[in-house]
Design goal:
With 204 residues, this protein is mostly beta strands. The chain has one domain: Jelly Rolls. It has one helix and 15 strands, in the order βββββββββββββαββ. The strands form two sheets. Strands 1, 4, 6, 7, 8, 9, 10 and 14 form an eight-stranded antiparallel β-sheet that branches. A seven-stranded antiparallel β-sheet has the order 2-3-15-5-11-12-13, with no helix packed on it.
């Protein structure tokens, strides 16, 4: 693929980062592959200078307030395989909103990395797909997830970076297979809204 990919749903181009995922887009569906043991995580029990593990990402730079929404479907093959909406501020400042096999049931999981990564499970879903949403206003970011794309469950709100760092954040898509032999991830129903949600906890 070329260095940039333009999706008609997004007002900014996307560029690949990390390992090659063979990203492709056709008929409203974005597809990527995570290779064996590819992940993006800095263990909180590790040393401060440990290298950051890596997984394929496809990212772009939105302006101002926004919501990035997509339905993700994961070809689960091993524990912790996941499809991810990803947020990047710096090499050790980034966050993930995941539909992950954690460890044996599809689960909404989040990671926020500030030097080291935290890791939190939110709720379990049936099936291999879910709707994910990242939102930003100023330096604040919010994660939501949904089983149907209509009623949204609030997952967390946080800050990452400050000032120009936060407003220059990259957002987009990621695939991971930390302990498995790889998995395919698809994103569809992709939507971009240039506004912060009206309510974080009312299901809207």
């Amino acid at each position: 693929m070329t260095d940039e990919m333009a999706l008609p749903e997004l007002p900014f181009p996307l560029r690949p980062y990390g390992p090659d995922a063979h990203w492709s887009y056709e008929n409203g569906m974005l597809t990527g592959w995570a290779g064996a043991r590819q992940d993006r995580f800095v263990p909180p029990t590790g040393e401060a200078l440990e290298p950051v593990s890596d997984a394929p990402r496809l990212l772009g730079a939105p302006e101002g307030d926004f919501q990035l929404i997509a339905r993700v479907k994961v070809g689960f093959g091993a524990a912790f395989d996941a499809g991810v909406l990803y947020l990047h501020v710096a090499e050790r400042q980034w966050a993930k909103l995941c539909l992950e096999l954690s460890p044996d049931r599809p689960t909404i999981c989040t990671v926020v990395t500030r030097g080291h990564s935290d890791d939190a499970n939110s709720f379990v879903l049936e099936g291999d797909s879910a709707w994910l949403r990242i939102s930003r206003t100023g330096a604040a970011f919010a994660f939501h997830a949904s089983a149907d794309g209509e009623r949204w469950t609030f997952v967390r709100i946080f800050t990452l970076g400050a000032g120009e760092e936060a407003t220059a954040a990259l957002v987009g898509f990621m695939a991971q297979s930390p302990v498995g032999e790889g998995c395919v991830v698809t994103f569809d129903r992709i939507e971009y809204r240039p506004v912060w949600p009206d309510g974080l906890r009312d299901g809207s």
